[in-house]
């Protein structure tokens, strides 16, 4: 008995030693940590509850991984400005599938090189605030937005779920930007890619425990999940390689006005000796990252916007009147944004009230760090809990109320503040934030210029959490006229 008591005391001392200097937080079980108490359907709500209990900076064990969770925007901005916070935590699903390739899971020299490459591509195609190509990008986005309007006009009658139409037309734009090609609506390859993207996002969210307990992959449920993800990755990468082979053969003879990411990569491959551009795996993962990140988050935001604005008809009438006064019968322009502050405020309020990445994108500590006087050990998972920042009643009064005026100043001009982090912040903030704003503004201005949107039937405003927080299916009626 004495030996067992000594072993127990030693284990407690080791645990206390590990926690020394860490932010406060709940105790967990051996091996499992706090995972049994995380709601797999709404992990953001579990973590937000812990923040209320332990404070804006807290820690917990997720399996064998030490996680530090930040919910104060000042602390988030301070930590993410540091080079040591630009890593990715060693999570099994992401690292086991991505192996540090692409952009989202890359770190160190590869991440810096590929982020610079993607930023330069975005500048080349006009996906930035300034640049000569901005008008070409505007025309390309409007082309897809107007095709969506035409599809609604000619095909969608009565109450419909807008998901399929939004996903096709937004996806067509993203396909053109990333791969330099479009798919017909009924193309089987396109249908397969959409299904793979949708199911993959859900399964990676459901497979959360696998990130921290890799041995779960041997259980039937998780084995099926991993099989789907790995087979889907392999098949999609074969598809990307076929597209690359076709494009590579025509590169010497053509150059698009707005080169796709794939074209830009292949041309850079011919110019740069850097290993990343010689590596097909890097190309495949980079294409998948930019395609998925561009489509999933923007699609979820558009769906939430139509749901909330469709439920508030007086607000929608003001929005449509503003668009009518500023735009009239011509196509909207990016220059109209300054004259449509309420529309910008409604987009921002949508991003606040339903953060499409409620847990943010997890970071990893490349070195021992310090935040708010607490220790962040090297190798820790750092979670930036956007949900808690955006739903904090001390920062956003009545956070569950859709109130766009919180993003308008006394003169009615659009403005945001430090408590608004839809694209994160710091060295690893979303590289495509400006392109996302362009797409959302032109798509939504085009829709509200042409249609009144009415939500019908029961709705659920809680959403479904996977990689993104997306609305459950709902139905709307698109009506012409005032």
From TrEMBL:
It comes from the Eukaryota. It is found in: Endoplasmic reticulum membrane; Microsome membrane. Keywords: Endoplasmic reticulum, Heme, Iron, Membrane, Metal-binding, Microsome, Monooxygenase, Oxidoreductase, Signal. GO terms for molecular function: heme binding; iron ion binding; oxidoreductase activity, acting on paired donors, with incorporation or reduction of molecular oxygen, reduced flavin or flavoprotein as one donor, and incorporation of one atom of oxygen; steroid hydroxylase activity. It holds the Pfam family p450. Heme binds at residue 430. GO terms for cellular component: endoplasmic reticulum membrane. One of its GO terms (biological process) is organic acid metabolic process. PANTHER family: CYTOCHROME P450 306A1, CYTOCHROME P450 508A4-RELATED. Belongs to the cytochrome P450 family. May be involved in the metabolism of insect hormones and in the breakdown of synthetic insecticides. This is Cytochrome P450. It comes from Dendroctonus armandi. The gene is CYP306A1.
């Amino acid at each position: 008995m004495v030996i067992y008591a000594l072993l127990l005391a030693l284990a407690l001392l080791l645990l206390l030693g590990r926690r020394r200097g860490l932010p406060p937080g709940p105790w967990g079980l051996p091996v499992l940590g706090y995972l049994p108490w995380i709601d797999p359907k709404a992990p953001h709500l579990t973590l937000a509850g812990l923040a209320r209990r332990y404070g804006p900076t807290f820690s917990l064990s997720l399996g064998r991984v030490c996680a530090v969770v930040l919910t104060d925007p000042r602390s988030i901005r301070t930590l993410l400005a540091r080079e040591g916070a630009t890593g990715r935590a060693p999570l099994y699903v992401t690292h086991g599938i991505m192996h540090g390739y692409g952009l989202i899971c890359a770190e160190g020299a590869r991440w810096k090189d590929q982020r610079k490459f993607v930023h330069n591509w975005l500048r080349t195609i006009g996906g930035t605030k300034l640049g000569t190509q901005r008008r070409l990008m505007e025309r390309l986005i409007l082309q897809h937005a107007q095709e969506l309007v035409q599809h609604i006009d000619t095909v969608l009658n009565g109450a419909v779920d807008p998901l399929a139409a939004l996903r096709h037309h937004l996806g067509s734009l993203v396909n053109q930007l990333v791969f330099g090609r479009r798919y017909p609506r009924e193309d089987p390859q396109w249908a397969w890619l959409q299904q793979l993207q949708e199911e993959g996002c859900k399964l990676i969210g459901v497979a959360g425990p696998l990130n921290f307990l890799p041995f779960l992959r041997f259980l039937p449920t998780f084995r099926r999940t991993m099989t789907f993800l790995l087979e889907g990755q392999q098949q999609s990468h074969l598809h990307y390689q076929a597209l690359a082979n076709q494009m590579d053969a025509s590169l010497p003879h053509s150059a698009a006005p707005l080169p796709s990411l794939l074209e830009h990569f292949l041309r850079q491959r011919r110019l740069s000796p850097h290993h990343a551009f010689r590596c097909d795996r890097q190309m495949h993962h980079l294409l998948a990252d930019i395609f998925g990140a561009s489509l999933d988050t923007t699609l979820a935001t558009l769906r939430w916007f139509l749901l909330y604005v469709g439920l508030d008809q007086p607000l929608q009438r003001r929005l449509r009147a503003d668009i009518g006064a500023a735009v009239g019968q011509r196509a909207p322009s990016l220059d109209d944004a300054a004259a449509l502050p309420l529309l910008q405020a409604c987009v921002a309020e949508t991003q606040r009230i339903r953060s499409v990445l409620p847990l943010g994108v997890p970071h990893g500590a490349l070195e021992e760090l310090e935040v708010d006087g607490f220790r962040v050990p090297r190798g820790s998972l750092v979670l930036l809990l956007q949900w808690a920042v955006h739903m904090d009643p001390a920062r956003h009064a009545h956070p569950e109320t859709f109130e766009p005026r919180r993003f308008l100043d006394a003169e009615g001009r659009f403005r945001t503040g430090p408590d608004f982090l839809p694209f994160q912040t710091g060295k690893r903030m979303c590289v495509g934030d400006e392109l996302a704003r362009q797409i959302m503004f032109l798509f939504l201005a085009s829709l509200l210029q042409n249609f009144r949107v009415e939500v019908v039937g029961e709705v659920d405003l809680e959403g479904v959490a996977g990689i993104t927080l997306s609305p459950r299916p709902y139905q709307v009626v698109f009506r012409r006229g005032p």
